[in-house]
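In this supplementary section we document a worked example of the pipeline. Step one takes a protein sequence of length 182 as its only input; no multiple sequence alignment statistics are reported here. Step two produces a three-dimensional model, which step three serialises into structure tokens for compact storage. The input and output of this example are shown verbatim.
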Amino acid sequence: MKQRAALLWVAITVFPAMLLAQTHQNVSVDPGGWTKAKWGMKEKQIKAVFPQATQVKDANGDVSLGISGYRIDPIKYTATFGFDEGGGLTSVAFDPEEEGPRHAVAEWVKMNLLEGLTDKYRKPTQVTDDKDEDGFSSTRTWQWLFPRTRITLTWVTHADPDAKHLDRTYLIYSQVRPRSGL
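The serialised model returned by step three reads:
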């Protein structure tokens, strides 16, 4: 009888507590931006939390506020901050600065970021694969969706060996805007 009572006590108290603890471990918290850069911050506030931020060129050659040589694990990136018309932070984009064959860098960066993001935020919310009509390139996108933040890792690769120099992996943290009513 005492054994049955002890088992019942374990089932009623310990098992639910274990489930609750496991549930909390599997839930990722919305980052509300990227590290110390939070959505809506003005350029002056970004410079205060990232004193190394200066005007940098992004992968498209556009100049904006950013950080060159920012390390995520062993890889260096150029991080660029995007602002809306009101001057509030809406995105942070990362392009690798690593030297070497583009296809090898793209693959290495993809593997490194995917592992780090999955460790931090768990499995992606969404994974999509797209191929262009002529089969020239393929794009795989992993997204982690939160109420205020979308994290998008994009890997673009090319089947043609002569086009491998166009392969690219990039990461974007972006603000999720509330939908307006109809």
